[in-house]
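subagent[fold] <- orchestrator: predict structure for attached chain, return tokens only, no commentary.
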Amino acid sequence: TKVKKTAKEETEKQIVSAEKKEKKSKKITSESEKVANADLNKISKNKLNKIGDKLVKKGSYYNAIDYYNAALFKSKKDKDVLMYSQKLGEANYILRDYKQAEKYYTKAVSLNTNSKKYPLLDYNLANTYKYLGKYEDAITMYSKFENVQSDNNKMAVLLEKSRLESKGAEY
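subagent[fold] -> orchestrator:
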């Protein structure tokens, strides 16, 4: 029984040790997050954008979001807010966080005065609405996309797809 007691005590010590390490690691993580956030505030908006773009190219959308958010926070001009909102919408959409994608795409669409520069915003917001089950909104956005891009030959495939998606959202 003394051996069993010793083994039990050893197991309890290991558990306590693991719990202490976990608490310490959480403190380190939260401290490193504070440092990281403080560091992002020191980086220029353009540099944040470049880092975000590089992360996206590597497929690291989750990490790119932090950089785009920091750049968006620093943005004062509508054209910058539009660009970062579009990038945040896209990153969240790819990560299937459709609520966040909707938030950013909606902001971008409201600021978009040049449908040639951001031709897919309406289409992407329509898809986001569809995935959120907001079918009426999706149909409206698909229709807007089709009307705005009807003369754009580069969008022919997406125009057809938009018509099909819109029909699918009706049911």
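orchestrator: received. Logging for downstream: The longest helix spans residues 2-42. Residues 25-36 have pLDDT under 50 and may be disordered.
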